[in-house]
Specification:
16 helices, binds histidyl-adenosine monophosphate, alpha+beta, five-stranded mixed β-sheet, elongated, eight-stranded mixed β-sheet
């Protein structure tokens, strides 16, 4: 047997996933976001430049593809996208979009070579939403409001929290990195190898360490929000005030830095203890330099977020009973008693489907077997056609719930189900 690739999943029942996607898309459209699509393959350089060479995603988790173009030009490496923000910014720049804010969202698979576990896959899906050209910090607040209302009102989630932090501007981070470095230097001997390495290469990522001993040190570390310039301090305060006024609950997490290099200022994650170790089911933040970094003519301060679909799906499973999932359509089956009635069965099914009635024609096995199958399918009615019915230009309609049967004219069948 050839099995599926490690870290991927088959989705055999799409009901909840479809509800998740439709509800999320409707929410995005309510806030005037437009759905777009970008390719799943991109130049690896796009992610190296935007996420950063030292990030886990770029340094360890890329699915690169050997292409013929690369044989001609070794720099022309392509990969499966690990996230969508870089692609959406590329699309903004490459297509010369000049209407800002550009509010877009996209849905599709992402690929990261991670160690698979519950809620962590190598192929997973995101709904990614971005506001490119979003100068005011109130955009961050509106985005968080959109997500929070989606999770609480539309998906009826209760056991989750919004964590936020503020990473300041480039100058703030430069200053803070030095302050953090001086602090960590004093505790160097107590840090593990990975943290010592991060301290030199990408110092703020030390906070993502899983080691308890390191975390105890980081709990006492200086907080970036205590070292913001006056403009950033004002913006940080405004974000918190507006969230409170809009009744969006949040907790400030000084150690939240997020694993991608493009972030500045507001960063956030929605987390739930119901998910176990992989607790974040959405995350995002502001990225004020990425557009110019990817060749845009001018800086476009921007903000965005991505929902991890598989993780949100795990949460929806727990509250499924409270969700307004669409009712399954009534199923009707047509059962021709013999081969001689099969053509008539197909003709009648064609007529019903032309009127948007969903019908299944059962063609194999004995009558008893077909009736069992009709029950298994949850059919509301079975339409039985024997030689007798065929000769009389009629059918027998059996109500599968009550067991009641009646003969009706073939020409009256669609009207019978409509009433
Ligand atoms: P991210 O935090 O890397 O951010 O991913 C967003 C969400 O995708 C995570 O919170 C998680 O739910 C889900 N996710 C990530 N990796 C996996 C995985 N291996 N398996 C299952 N789910 C996963 C971004 O990707 C940014 N592009 C978000 C953003 C948009 N920032 C600004 N705009």
């Amino acid at each position: 047997m050839i099995t599926r690739v490690k870290g991927t999943q088959d989705f055999l029942d799409l009901d909840l996933l479809t509800f998740l996607a439709d509800t999320t898309f409707a929410q995005c459209e309510l806030y005037q976001f437009k759905r777009i699509e970008t390719p799943i393959i991109e130049h690896t350089e796009l992610f190296k430049r935007s996420l950063g060479l030292q990030t886990d995603v770029v340094s360890k988790e890329m699915f690169t593809i050997k292409s013929h173009d690369q044989e001609q030009n070794p720099a022309d490496e392509i990969c499966l996208r690990p996230e969508a923000t870089a692609s959406l910014v590329r699309a903004f720049v490459e297509n010369g979009i000049d209407q800002v804010p550009w509010k877009v969202f996209t849905y599709g698979p992402m690929f990261r070579y991670e160690r698979p576990q519950k809620g962590r896959y190598r192929q997973f899906h995101q709904v990614s939403m971005e506001i490119i050209g979003a100068t005011s910090q109130a955009h961050d607040v509106e985005l968080l409001l959109m997500l929070d209302r989606l999770f609480s009102d539309k998906f009826k989630l209760v056991n989750y929290a919004l964590h936020i932090n503020f990473l300041g501007c480039q100058e703030d981070r430069k200053k803070y990195r030095e302050i953090l470095y001086a602090f960590l230097k004093k505790h160097q001997d107590e840090l593990d190898g990975l943290c010592k390495d991060r301290m030199e290469k990408n110092i703020m990522r030390v906070f993502d360490c899983k080691n308890q001993q390191c975390q105890e040190i980081y709990n006492k570390a200086p907080k970036i929000t205590d070292y913001l310039c006056s403009e950033c301090a004002g913006q940080w305060q405004a974000v918190q005030n507006q969230l409170s006024l809009l009744s969006v609950n949040f907790s400030v997490e000084p150690k939240l830095v997020r694993g991608l290099d493009y972030y500045s200022k507001t960063v956030f994650e929605f987390v739930s203890p119901d998910l176990g170790a992989q607790s974040a089911f959405a995350g995002g933040g502001r990225y004020d330099q990425l557009v110019s970094h990817l060749g845009g003519r001018q800086d476009q301060p921007s903000v965005g977020a991505a929902i991890g679909v598989e993780r949100l799906l795990l949460l929806l499973e727990t509250v499924k009973a409270n969700l307004p999932l669409p009712q399954a359509k009534a199923v009707r089956v047509i059962i021709p008693m013999g081969q001689a009635q099969q053509t008539l069965a197909l003709l009648l099914a064609d007529e019903l489907r032309a009127q948007d009635m969903s019908v299944d024609v059962l063609l194999d096995g004995s009558f008893k077997h077909m009736m069992k199958k009709a029950n298994k399918l949850g059919a509301s009615h079975a339409i039985l056609i024997g030689q007798d019915e065929q000769d009389a230009r009629e059918v027998t309609v059996k109500n599968m719930v009550t067991g009641a049967q009646e003969r009706i004219a073939q020409t009256a069948l669609a009207g019978y189900f409509k009433k």
